[in-house]
Specification:
The protein is mainly beta. It has helices at residues 36-53, 58-63, 158-163; strands spanning 2-3, 54-56, 74-76, 92-100, 103-115, 127-135, 141-152, 171-174, 180-183, 186-192, 212-222. The longest helix is centred in the first third of the chain and has 18 residues, at 36-53.
Length: 297
Amino acid sequence: MKTYIKNLNYFFITFLVLFSGCKKDNPDQVEEIRDLSEQTIADNSALIEYLETHFYNYDDFEKNPDKYPIEIKLDTITEDNINKTPLIDQVTKKTIELINGDDKINVDLYYLVSRQGKGVSPSVADSTFVTYKGILLNGVKFDEKVYPVWFDLISVVRGFREVLPELSDGTFSIKADGTFDFKDYGQGILFIPSSLGYYSNNTGSIPAYSPLIFSVSLYLVNQSDHDLDGILSIDEDVNKDNNPLNDDTDNDGIYNLFDTDDDGDGILTSNEYDQNDDGIPDDSDNDGIPDYLDSDQ
């Protein structure tokens, strides 16, 4: 794939928030937020109906496994293509547990890998170089990036970052004119319920409670250390639930991956983590809690 991106140095990445929000036309009008359990059922029904009645151009990928690029295309199953395999027979379901007050609710999203990719897979906290197209279930396109952009997965909707690690990145070569050719990269389709998207927010051209569909190509991955403390951001997921956005050891309102002093003891995490350089987090008082997470050591 040819692009006109001249510099891939990730130190110059501008981390983007996927699809910036907009204000409602009438800010004084307050709509009661829908019950999450009920909306989860409604979204899942809508997604299942879409998956049962649509297909993607899998023939193009099967016939041309080494051809790059191939655009992912979605279409309705009609009389003219009644023999096409519906998406429901090709997708994988992934269940995410959400906390709703005192309740835990399981929410299903679906994804399809059209090409796995031959490189490395990102974590949910890494930076990814991608192209994508986002549409609603009615086929209306709400966003598209034709040329690759860097996305910090921490900054995008949860459904997007939950699925990108299912793909792997590829390789690139630099052409004589300074442009890049990409190949061997992963491609897939994401089918996301509103609770893992924008839920009750009207965002740009995305109405509230809208399930989202993304077709995405993953070109490159960079591991992230958001607070530059020497610990990869994914390793700041202390409770190991694959969600670094709920780990705040010192309860100061700053997640560990953004906090340069994770335990709030006045000593920088980078100065407590591994002072003897043996690759193991230091634990001075041998209480089983690493120094950088232990304010009492």
